Amino acid sequence: MSFEIDVTLRPGEHPMRCVISSTASVAVLIGPSGVGKTSALNAIAGLLRPEQGRIAVSGETLFNSATDLHVAPERRGVGYVFQDARLFPHRRVAGNLAFAERLAEKGASVISRSDIIEILEIGDLLNRWPATLSGGETKRVAIARALLSGPKYLLLDEPLASLDADRANALYHLIERIRDEIGLPILLVSHSASDITRLAGDVFAMK
Ligand SMILES: Nc1ncnc2c1ncn2[C@@H]1O[C@H](COP(=O)(O)OP(=O)(O)OP(=O)(O)O)[C@@H](O)[C@H]1O
Question: Where does the ABC transporter domain lie (predicted)?
């Protein structure tokens, strides 16, 4: 099982339930704005504690309200690409990548730095400051940074949102390469059953 999740969350006033049970290499979580998709990713990453339920990734239980288990975020092996990317503004692209590499446990990376830079086509960006990058470039660097931290799985929040059609299409194919060549379980969020769901083995909806 890549992702086995059944949790009730309460990020604000109202409870929300998220149920995902997937063996696919890519699972997609869809649902309208405000339904709780980002909150679900935050819970899987360990940044939001669910009210109840269980979260397991690749067979490892990360949260279980029944046994009061809540693995700390830094021990979950998560590569999380936030919707707004959140690059460190005071470090160049190379510095952002180096920071992630220092976080990786020795031998944890399933793919080399040079392969990640090649797959995400960011070799020409290494000297740039984050503020000078386009939206698509920023997303590519954010995904590279997540991969370099040696994650066991990848969470992508709306990776194609706010990109024009050409850039969205290019990033779509890069995610496809990550799926096929790196083989990490990927859970990605989309507000609609858009093109991105073509990447997925499984699609789950929050209502
Ligand atoms: N820290 C918080 N405090 C209070 N309410 C919150 C908090 N985080 C999220 N919420 C509320 O929880 C609900 C779900 O938010 P969330 O961002 O998870 O939805 P979403 O499905 O990802 O939406 P979108 O597609 O617009 O990003 C929203 O009503 C939001 O206002």
Answer: 2-207
Per-residue DSSP letter, 7: E
Cβ atoms within 10 A of the Cβ of 24, count?
17
Classify the complex by whether its ipTM is higher than 0.90, answering yes or no: yes
| CA of residue 35 to ligand 1 center, whole Å | 7
**Strand, coil or helix: what is 156?**
strand
Q: Write the pLDDT tens digit of every residue in 25-69.
A: 999 999 988 999 999 999 999 999 999 999 999 999 999 999 999
Q: Quickly list H helices, the chain.
A: 37-45, 93-103, 113-119, 135-148, 165-177
Instruction: Indicate whether residue 11 lines ligand 1 (CB < 6 A).
Output: yes
Please identify, by atom number, the ligand 1 atom nearest to the C-alpha of residue 39: 18
Number of alpha carbons in the 13 Å side-chain half-sphere of residue 181? 14
Q: Whose Cα sits closest to atom 17 in ligand 1? A: 38
pTM of the model: 0.91
- Ligand 1 neighbour 104 (Cβ under 6 A): no
Number of the ligand 1 atom closest to the C-alpha atom of 42 = 18
Contact 13, 188 (CB under 8 A): no
User: What is the token pair recorded at 165?
Assistant: 């059609």
Q: Which atom of ligand 1 lies closest to the CA of 83?
A: 27
